[in-house]
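Changelog excerpt

This revision adds worked examples to the README so contributors can see how folded entries look when concatenated. The first example is reproduced verbatim below.
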Amino acid sequence: MIKGSVLRDAIISAANSISKQKKSVDELNVFPVPDGDTGTNMSMTIKNALPELKNLDDNTDAGVVAKVAASGLLRGARGNSGVILSLIFRGFSKGFKDQPEVTAENLVNALELGVKGAYKSVMKPTEGTILTVAREASEKARAVLPSTNDPVIIMEEVCTQAAATLEETPKLLPALAKAGVVDAGGKGLLIIFCAMRDVFKGGAIVSDEPDEEKPKKITVDDFASVVGRYDTEITYTYCTEMLITKKKDAADSSKLRAYLEMIGDCVVVVEDDEIIKVHVHTNNPGKAIEKALEFGYINLPKIENMKLQHKAQQKAVKQEIVSVKPEKQYGFVAVAAGNGIEALFKDIGADCIVKGGQTMNPSTEDILQAIMQCPAETVFVLPNNKNIIMAAEQAVKLADRKVCVLQSRTIPQGMAAMLAFDPDADFNKNRIEMTAAIERVSTGQVTFAARNSDYEGRSIKKGEILCLENGKLSFVESDVAKGAYKLTKKLVKGDSSFITILYGADVTESAAQALKDKVSAKFSNLDVNLINGGQPVYYYIISVE
């Protein structure tokens, strides 16, 4: 049987493992549009459970461990892959309930409950994804249960089957076959299962220390970004930074780096002709400063106690979500990114804004926080991105009030839904009318290719301009303005009346105005509006109604 302490360590190891391998999972994403990325979302989801798991002692029952983990994953769930992962762990919570230790039968039941919950949460389950990998692994576990009562053997079979199923995913999804990759979510799940299996077998917990990186050259200008990678490392107490004006006869800075590595870690020493910048985590900041004086004059020294900072951060994280008393019947929560777009939603009645969108999938807890801060008895939630809908739906189960998640997949759809709201109508009529408004809107999005890809028969190169029509790739361009104009023409139909152009943070006002003038000249019979959305990722978001 598997003790609670072993289950705890297995989940911690799984979180560290997917965190270290998230980049390789992200790179399996077929669609070249910049997005939250599967590996990153799964990593952030499971890591949300770590603070509470690490506080559990070795005598904690397996059922309690599973419950704590499931709660952490649910609240931290990001993106569709993160939500599905959280539901699989909810299956563990149900299957291990009241169990001091995990038996083979407990494990099989838990896997089945997790798979059932994951499939139920997806409106149209697609085979060849993480769902298939989880389901076939669960089926294999059930098949071998009569021959063993050892949960470790069961987990071994689960991993073997998950790996085999993962290799078959390209046969089920043509897009994977064309790109020559396996499913990203399935790969992430395999990494997590394998890390858990290794701990079950007596292996060590995968370290949360970052793998050693050997950059070719770091400049002084890169210093801040390099140091940022070490913000969460607290092996030593004091984060020490300083700027050294070099002496004319200063020794090679590699000698300073070698000394600092003897008294601490996370050492960064970068220099140019005149200065040396230093960052080190150490228990002896005085020694670091004393050694630095041998190389020149010290300016702007900074010493911070990271353990005290960490405690303060943990205290802030653990603060309970405050529920605002309802003062009205209906309220709105909208997910949006960009000052202009956020202001637009506020102007048309949104009570709370959750900052997020493409590449920035908010967690279930982020959305829940906004719902609980909305002063209404019934809250309509507008995810405005297909990768955020599932996380929003999980928040419904945690809220203390009625919540309706509308299926808005774009910013224009969310705005159209809000504009269709009638304060004098009842809930059901509003839900129907707002959903109908979502379906009437055509959305165009102009962005860039985040990676090289062979997608739907197109060979796409990183950096090319992608033009999307209602979420699907329409064509590729080399020029942003040309792509936006061409896309607008494709969106306009015979019964269209309005065109709204939202320009992003990387587009100048003059370029946006030039596009509006061109569109207005082409469609002189339509009402064309230009708005500074300030959104990241998308150069333009175009709405046609």
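The second example, added in the same revision:
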Amino acid sequence: MTKKIFKNILAVSIAALVVCILCVSYVLYGYFEDIIKDELKTEAYLISQEMGDDENQLERLDPVNNRITLIDKNGTVLYDSRADEASMENHSSREEIIEARNNGDAYSVRYSDTLSTKTIYYAVLIDDGNVLRVAQDQNVVALLLKGIIVPFVIILIITALLASIISRTASRRIIAPINDMDLNDDDADEPYPELAPLMTKIRQQNKHIQLQLDEMKRRQKEFIAITENMNEGFLLIDRSMEILSYNTAALELLGDGGESVPHTALELNRSKGFRTAVEKALLGSNNQQAYETENRCYNIVANPVSENGSVVGAVVIVMDVTEKEQREKLRREFTSNVSHELKTPLTTIYGVSDMMAEGIVKAEDVRSFGMTIKDESGRMISLIDDIIKLSKLDENPAAEEMSEVDLFELASVVAERLKINAEEKKVSVRIEGESTVIKGVPSLCEEIIYNLCENAIKYNKEGGSVRVEAKPEASGAVLVVEDTGIGIPYEYQDRVFERFFRADKSHSNQIKGTGLGLSIVKNAVLYLGGRVELDSTEGKGTRITVHFFK
């Protein structure tokens, strides 16, 4: 704005200067013409006086700049200072000659467009009836160049410099109060009354814009808070697959973990599932695609974004469904294992009972067959009981409220219950430690100790031992069950807590069990907020440590 004001002031100053010079030139031009006319009149008077009655006296006059012509009564040129009078035409029709004969003297001005000259004539009637004419030629262009152009240019340059300095100073002084105005202060005085309506409108617009900016910032914060706290990845892309918005989860789930942020969706991930989801969404189709890595499973949901009936982009949601897939896999395995575990005893019971029903069993074998049916039925009941326990733990309900449980005392009770099992395997069980009271569910604590001790006895060597230790620690309490049994191969140690998993299939066929004991232990410990640690060496034994936290 300062430059604009400066240019306008400078332009007005120069324009005013040009107009003034033109006006002065016009006035001077007329003034000089009057001077020339007076000069011609005086010169004509002096020549007429010097000439007297002798016409030849004109030839003896000193050379002069002006042209002198003598015309007789008939218009014939008697003398001309610049031309041969004999070759000149009759001048009786000339304007100044006619007027001089009528009025005694006369002026006349004639222009030559070709030569850009002007000639001023003065004619006077002398006593003998002839007319004496004096003329002066003026070159208009030369006059302007010499008399006006050069001074005009000099004055224009000087005036332009002065106008530039004054204009710059004036423009800055005009703009300074405007630049110092506070657009946010409603009580501020306006430097110019003419600006009051404009400033009022600007302040109103500023308030409106500020409200809109605050609302946008609030929404942006909400959007960032929502997307950044999502476990799912979020991407917003345009028609060219340029990434417009994203959250950290999207980079973690789809990216390679690098620090640089990709510009396009394909720079982020080029897997088939992701590409298909994005391409279909940009074609206007809602779709879901699967995307798998080495250890994780993802579900990609892509929906098109439309504006005025045309697709302008897409919203992509990436969900980690690894746990869901693992649960589904476990469910299928669980169903298969349960079916297998139930089918085996049922097949035995059906075969034995069928033989007894057909009467092909000898009387002395009835007792043996009855014991087989009893054992297989007990195996089924034990399996179903364990399945029910796991189901309850999966649902996380507690039939009992949390109460104080003494692990040392509970271990002693369990050891007494398993005394017969230990004697059959010729395994010694000893309880060590001290009174260790925790906050827990009594039935779950008993299940933990019972299953650990039962496994320690079941998979022990004949003549082996089991050591159960319970003691307090700074973070809560610790329960250790250690045996001298067959141990667990290293490659199976990460899987022994899976349902129905049994590390040694050869021993599994010989040792009765459902394969759910350690699964029940793990789930019960997790429910109580504890942690299970396994340390085992094949052929030497196994040590399982359970930490209970306060």
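Reviewer comment on example two: The longest strand covers residues 297-307. Residues 505-510 have pLDDT under 50 and may be disordered.
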